[in-house]
Design a protein that fits this description.
With 255 residues, this protein is of the alpha/beta class. The protein folds into 2 domains: 117 residues, Response regulator (Rossmann fold, 3-Layer(aba) Sandwich), CATH 3.40.50.2300; 116 residues, Winged helix-like DNA-binding domain superfamily/Winged helix DNA-binding domain (Arc Repressor Mutant, subunit A, Orthogonal Bundle). The chain is 35% helix and 21% strand. Strands 2-1-3-6-7 form a 5-stranded parallel beta sheet, with helices on both faces. A 4-stranded antiparallel beta sheet has the order 8-9-10-11, covered by helices on one side. Helix 2 runs parallel beside helix 3 and helix 6 crosses helix 8. The longest helix has 14 residues.
């Protein structure tokens, strides 16, 4: 497997590169953010080991920019800063794992093996569909650059749609992901919250729409579809599989 090691300390870089090559990794070493960015653009890496402190910038900002440029190789961050806030910042920047110095080389190898099993799947830290943008870390949503305020449940529902754009989600599936298994509220809760989202997102060029697939559920589309069976309003006749289990309607809707 080909690995990019971003480490500005010559001694540390030499030790890690030698050890990784002994484990059959093909290792390229970059001593700066600029060199790492160039190498990542030119080569298809399977893994990235990234030091946070670099002479020409912050390693976490480098990670964020690599993700923005479409580099989805799993990233393992190395740092001497072990505070919870530092680890959270690294993971929110798009890193996949975090290892605090000093560390055992055997642990580094084990973490790299675990990351390699995941593969280089697209995992953007900020979700974008058309003109719609959602940041799970900051809980911010923007539509065509306009900030939109959502309740926690509305945010969770929109995040589910944005993680699976173009995929038809049944009411049952939405209920299972956004509400918990013990939910016994109103039976049309999914339809209610879809209406909330539609109203807040609005319409306009590039703005995705939440469309109803009659008898099946809902789908987030970046462009309006004219396919048969797609409507702009709720399906008044959900299938039996869509109906919440054991749910009895309640008068009070808690948002």
């Amino acid at each position: 497997m080909r690995l990019l090691l971003v480490e500005d300390d010559p001694r540390m870089a030499s030790l890690l590169a030698r050890g990784l090559r002994a484990e059959s990794y093909a290792v390229d070493v970059a001593a700066s953010a600029e060199d790492a960015r160039w190498l990542a653009r030119e080569n298809p890496y399977d893994l990235v080991v990234l030091d946070v402190m670099l002479p020409d910038g912050d390693g976490l900002e480098l990670c964020r920019s690599l993700r923005a440029e479409g580099c989805w190789a799993p990233v393992l961050v190395l740092t001497a800063r072990g505070a919870v806030a530092d680890r959270v910042r690294g993971l929110d920047a798009g890193a996949d794992d975090y290892l605090v110095k000093p560390f055992a080389f055997e642990e580094l190898l084990a973490r790299l093996r675990a990351l390699a099993r995941r593969g280089a799947h697209e995992r953007p830290p900020v979700l974008r569909v058309g003109a719609l943008e959602l940041d799970p870390a900051t809980r911010q949503v923007r539509v065509a650059g306009r900030p939109v305020s959502l309740s926690p449940r509305e945010f969770a529902l929109l995040e589910l749609f944005m993680r699976r754009p173009g995929e038809v989600l049944s009411r049952r599936e939405i209920l299972d992901h956004v509400w918990d298994w013990a939910y016994e509220g109103i039976s049309n809760i999914v339809d209610v919250y879809v209406r909330y989202l539609r109203a807040k997102l609005g319409r306009g060029p590039g703005i995705p729409t939440i469309e109803t697939v009659r008898g099946a559920g809902y789908v987030l589309r970046s462009e309006s579809s004219t396919a048969a069976g797609l409507e702009g309003e709720e399906d008044p006749h959900p299938t039996a599989a869509d109906r919440p289990r054991g749910g009895s309607p309640e008068r009070l809707l808690v948002r």
